[in-house]
Amino acid sequence: xxxxxxxxxxxxxxxxxxxxxxxxxxxxxxxxxxxxxxxxxxxxxxxxxxxxxxxxxxxxxxxxxxxxxxxxxxxxxxxxxxxxxxxxxxxxxxxxxxxxxxxxxxxxxxxxxxxxxxxxxxxxxxxxxxxxxxxxxxxxxxxxxxxxxxxxxxxxxxxxxxxxxxxxxxxxxxxxxxxxxxxxxxxxxxxxxxxxxxxxxxxxxxxxxxxxxxxxxxxxxxxxxxxxxxxxxxxxxxxxxxxxxxxxx
Amino acid sequence: xxxxxxxxxxxxxxxxxxxxxxxxxxxxxxxxxxxxxxxxxxxxxxxxxxxxxxxxxxxxxxxxxxxxxxxxxxxxxxxxxxxxxxxxxxxxxxxxxxxxxxxxxxxxxxxxxxxxxxxxxxxxxxxxxxxxxxxxxxxxxxxxxxxxxxxxxxxxxxxxxxxxxxxxxxxxxxxxxxxxxxxxxxxxxxxxxxxxxxxxxxxxxxxxxxxxxxxxxxxxxxxxxxxxxxxxxxxxxxxxxxxxxxxxxxxxxxxxxxxxxxxxxxxxxxxxxxxxxxxxxxxxxxxxxxxxxxxxxxxxxxxxxxxxxxxxxxxxxxxxxxxxxxxxxxxxxxxxxxxxxxxxxxxxxxxxxxxxxxxxxxxxxxxxxxxxxxxxxxxxxxxxxxxxxxxxxxxxxxxxxxxxxxxxxxxxxxxxxxxxxxxxxxxxxxx
Lengths: 249, 431
Fold this sequence. Notes:
heterodimer; A: Rossmann fold; CATH 2.40.50.1020; 5-stranded parallel sheet; 5-stranded antiparallel sheet; 16 strands; B: alpha+beta; LytR-like (chain A); CheY-like_superfamily (chain A); phosphoprotein (chain A); activator (chain A)
């Protein structure tokens, strides 16, 4: 994993460098600190021929340039790198970091007592993320892009998908949220065998069915939601669920 | 003689229908006045001069009489409808008589019996089904006038068709029919045009009203901030004077303490307020700016920390300002309400920026005590709420607004004690 540090203040740059270097040497020897820069220019020229996996960026870089623009430039070519901002309190743009720049974390300089701990914590999660990316590709998650932030929703958390009235909008209901996105239900039923098209406007997760009502033609899901089932789907659905766990009426 | 009695019966029914529909209190004096002024002359005209002249007199005199009694527009509308229903029931009676060809009573009498029953029934139905509509229109004078025009024109056409046509030859009848039909159609089109113009005007007024309200809110928040600044400036002079005191006696330890205690804290407060304005400076939509500022001040009164981030210039939203203001108002109210139940972290974060694909993101996050306190997949259902009626109601409104925009999507999410509402507005209509 390659790390880039960009900080204009010499002392803080040194501090940041030392903390990461010492910690990595002890715990993650494969980590390489590829660049320690004092301004955005250096990072940009480095990026012309190289790529890093983790960036620690100061927001206020002096001489007009700023870490947010730098992060934006990095993101243009690299959606996966971990970006960690180091900033003064007054400039913490929490939501912008999270959704616009998909930053992994941000660290506030004024909290000097915890500074090195926070740096190490953020660094640790960057390493973890890097290792995860290397392993199996994200298989059993459904991805939703919110701004630049990619939200991974595990299949087992999903209750159902539903088309909203019009406009090719699909609404996903899961344990922790409700999300609109653009797409077609047809593509969704093909992602995994656990998803089942029970009606022309609804795809349900078979794992979450607790009740099938043949008379009134609906299924009830674990969260209490009821979805209409078409005549044709009703015949298939019963063969697909575990009958000992589902109440069939 | 028979005709005379039947006319009397018809008058009585008509009189009852009008007084029932208009709900004018009827005393014997008033009834007698009506008979003398309207009924007797019209029967005389009917018998001596001609059928339709009698009817015209009856119409005009009863309109005048009842309007004079009630002095309300609505009375005229009611009379028109009563007369329209009269024509309608008369036709209906003939249909019914054809359908049941049993001669239980002699022709004319049977006709009148069926007519009376049907007419009374229709009037009662009319009264009950329109009561709510008229109540709704209470304040709208233009609507009354439009309805009156429609009712008058329809009624006149009906009666002209019924009585005047008897005097015309077949050839003339055709011409006459064409003329009445075209006239009727033209008048109705005109009424429709008036209605549309009126609706447009009212919508415009409503819009201006909301915008003005938002602008006023914005001005008020500016005033609050301005007052704070004034106060600070006043304090400033005092602070400088006391610092001078410390410096003169070379008490640097004391100066240090004083600086930390008074200047730092005061400065921080003002800086925070100025920051908020500075943060919002890139949001160039006054209505939304005012709304956010007002809600921010409201939240801070409740001890909630509010962070606002607008890193990009936002001068245009691909949504109706009123719609987006309603949505943000609901979200911010919910965020404030949710935070009031919290005991420790009270925080609301608001961000508006452009994403890489140039859509506009509006994000509102607030802390919640416990992830399970929000039933995320149910909050948008009509009337559902974790606490209080208003929350659920508001969110179903949000849903129905967003459903009308093909270019807007909403994501709602609970994660580690943070509740997020994320609106994404694509630049163009359609995905």
